[in-house]
Amino acid sequence: MQLAVDPRRADRERRYKPPPASSAPAEDLTTDYMNILGMVFSMCGLMMRLKWCAWTAVFCSSISFANSRVSDDTKQIVSSFMLSISAVVMSYLQNPAPMSPPWASLTS
């Protein structure tokens, strides 16, 4: 069964107009957030000797590096990455035993 009347309202239609070229798209802050998270986890890994914090810092720094643009500050991204690598190295130099997950202590 077909409707005989078109339910769309012709007086409410508006043509699509693309936004003006002068308006800049919203800036993606994923790189900055992951950079800060990487530094925080690196410092936690170094200070508290938590291996999972150091590995999370490497993960966050990798995401920050992968999402960075050419215009971003490369010194800050590289220093964050090196800080996270040093957190992993230092945590394994102090205790070379394999990492146990943080929730392993809850079950025993």
From TrEMBL:
Pfam families: ASTER
Localization in the cell: Membrane
Record-level GO BP terms: protein insertion into ER membrane
Entry keywords, A to Z: Membrane, Transmembrane, Transmembrane helix
Gene Ontology molecular function terms on file: protein folding chaperone
Entry-linked InterPro entries: ASTER
Residue ranges with Basic and acidic residues bias: 1-16
Principal location: membrane
GO cellular component: a single term: endoplasmic reticulum membrane
Taxonomy, superkingdom: Eukaryota
Region described as Disordered: spans on this chain: 1-26
Nucleotide-binding is among the record's keywords: no
PANTHER family to which the protein is assigned, alphabetical: CGI-140, PAT COMPLEX SUBUNIT ASTERIX
Family: Belongs to the Asterix family.
Protein's name in the database: Protein Asterix
Higher taxonomy: Eukaryota, Metazoa, Ecdysozoa, Arthropoda, Hexapoda
